[in-house]
Fold this sequence. Notes:
By secondary structure, the protein is mainly α. It has helices at residues 20-25, 28-48, 52-71, 74-77, 84-106, 110-132, 141-162, 165-181, 185-191, 199-221, 225-247. The N and C termini lie far apart (51 Å).
Amino acid sequence: MWSKLPWLIIPIFVAFALPPSARADLLPIVSKMLENLAAINLIERGFALEDMNQVARGAEEIIGRSGELRKLSSNDLDIDHSKKPKFNAHLDHLVQHANTLRSEALKGKTDKAIDAFRLIVEEGCTPCHKEFREEGGELKLDVYLMTSVMKGLEEIDRGALLNDYWLIATSAREVQDVARLMQWDQVIDSTFKIEPSGWKDFKKYARKLDKIARQVEIAAEDRNEAGVFRGIRAMMSESCLPCHDDFRKVDKHETPEYLPKK
Length: 262
């Protein structure tokens, strides 16, 4: 099975990973699609664990959310009215192949399920992203950096599930690389649009992420499973979540001074 598994390098967008400047600029259509894209990760994990019921659940999520998206008007999605039929066509491809994926997964036919999964990405997700996500199909730099961190964390989890310490160590190094970029003044200023009063705290969280990711890498090199799990928890509890509390979660009536002003 493993030689046939099509590991796809797909940015998995998780809503809480996006910094405030990125979230403010997202079109409604992108916000709605985040949930659908998260189902892709669920399906991939199902294949990795040979859990076809999980694969089927991911397919069901795509079917349900695609139906919800189809009911939205072009105004709701903030797209040109003339492009709504094309958007619906992309959703129809998603539903068609997701139905096939669910059916084949529940039958335990892994190869056919994988084929259907590839078609979800190739005929549904990817062409839709190119046309509707961003001009030219490219991600803004701040979104790219934050989703790179999340992808690294997901790959560390994947490595733990598969007992693949090489994958854990490699992914931890990638998180370190991004964390170090996020400590540069010019990145904090021009990419994340954070005002100078917030730089110190932002750097503190980035340094913490860098340090703990290094500890995870060392634990992986020692094949220390408990150390890997401690590191994953620490990255989330000591860096990611408190950083989101300071820089993402904004009270409806009060905006901290270091966040971009609307």
